Amino acid sequence: MEKPSDGGKPYLPWNLSAGHDLREDERELVQALGTAVVMRWFDLPRDIQKRLFEAAVSGPQTLREPLAKFLHAHGES
Fold first, then answer.
1. How far is CA 63 from CA 1, 2, 4, 69, in A?
2. What is the 8-class DSSP label of residue 23?
3. Are 51 and 43 in contact (CB under 8 A)?
C-alpha cells in the first residue's frame, strides 16, 4: 500500500490504539520504540512532533490533554 503524502513510500496501516491485540514480545517492542520517541522528542522536527502527537491521540480524546501536559512538563529548559 502506498501513502501519497509520504512520497509514495510503502507503509503499514497499523492501528495499535484501536484495541489491537499484541503478543507480549510485540508489546515490549512497541514500548521500547515509544520510550525512544519520548527520549528524543525535542530532537524531532516540529512537523514530525505534531504528526506523532496527533497519531497518539487519534483514539480516546481523553489522552490529548494529559499527553500535552506531559510533553510540556518534560520540555527542554
1. 29, 29, 28, 10
2. -
3. no
Strand partners, 10: 2
Q: Is pLDDT at 44 greater than 70 in this prediction?
A: yes
Whether the pTM exceeds 0.85: the reply is no
Q: How far apart are CA 75 and CA 3, in angstroms?
A: 31
Is 69's pLDDT higher than 80? Answer: yes
The pLDDT tens digits for 25-34 are: 888 998 999 9
pLDDT band at 20 (very low <50, low <70, confident <90, very high): low
10: phi then psi, degrees, rounded to nearest 5: -65, 150
**Cβ atoms 41, 49 nearer than 8 A:** yes
Q: Is the dihedral of CA 48, 65, 72, 32 positive or negative?
A: negative
- What's the CA gap between 38 and 46, in Å, rounded? 14
